[in-house]
Model the fold of this input.
Amino acid sequence: MASEKRKMFPLVQIVGYSLAGLIGAGVAVITLKTLSPSQNFTNRTFQPPMLSLEGEFVATAVKKVGTAVVRIDTEQTIRLAPDPALNDPILRQFLGLTDADLVPQQKLQRGIGSGFITDRSGLILTNAHVVRGADKVTVTLTDGRQFRGEVRGADLLMDLAVVKINPTGQALPVAPLGDSSKVRVGDWAIAVGNPLGLNNTVTLGIISNLSRSSSQIGMPDKRLDLIQTDAAINPGNSGGPLLNKSGEVIGINTAIRAEAQGIGFAIPIDIAKAAATALADGKQVAHPYLGIHMITLTPHIARENNSAPNAPIQLPEIDGVVVLQAPPNTPAGAAGVRPGDVIVDINGQSITTAEQLQRIVESGQVNQVLQVKLRRGSQIVSLSIRIGDLQPTR
Done:
């Protein structure tokens, strides 16, 4: 069995192990100390833990925000083309079909999600997947008022959208926005949605991890770091707010892992605030990228790869970022980056992890030129790579 495993493509093994380790990160393990029977408990009093001295902080936080959480109903007309095989006249005659039977049919597809009002003028934040492709958007408040919604802008890579309603002089509740940079692992997290239209759904948990890359959690089509929480996030709650214990919005509920119970994710509100202004104006959000698939390289990983008899390449036993793919139509590929290259320096800064490289690129500007040093075999290669703008395929 061991010999069979060694025949697998080593870099694929590395990717699998890396992802498994990343996905499993952030799980708190509590070890209970075993007490000796000889210990004296006569004067000890045990009480169950309390969630809060106030006891009602969840209800208070939800009351502060709840009326600003809305239900979003969408409708989309989908054209269903007939089976191309029915163009065969012999088959049509056999089935007794006429030209009228081959007219494309239409199907009305409905969707439900949540969102929350961020401005008294009627701006609403939600997920892009909630309103994607919608022909009609209806927004319902908890007091029963309904408004026609207009999708001002959506970014599929961030799964973020801005919807606008026209209150026509009516007062609107507004959700107070917090500061996600101050969120800590272990803080309370309250997920709120409005899939029922009139009543909020509320779940409670904690912040279990921060800065979880979307690629780490099996969402390669997204481009952001997420807040991880164990507060249950149901599909109808997508687009609703994630609150801190003070009732401030610290994130936007965006995803659940179907295969991992009790894990949900939210877009940090600081990221959403930065992008919402552009989306509200109908503008695109820039996404700087190089276009490489990569993993962190350590001397240990390099030795594991190099000792495999079928290793396609020999990797230097150093810290850096090894390139798995660099398609020629990407900025990195066009600049000459190759699979197997190990990136060790960008603009004079030492690079040791894939996450570090990703953040350097994302903090840069589109069209900015990066000076990159990499190891290619025993050689040091210097390349200039112009940052591109990654846009989703619609």
Notes: The first strand starts at residue 69 and ends at 80. Residues 10-23 form the longest helix (14 residues). The radius of gyration is 26 Å. Residues 1-50 have pLDDT under 50 and may be disordered.
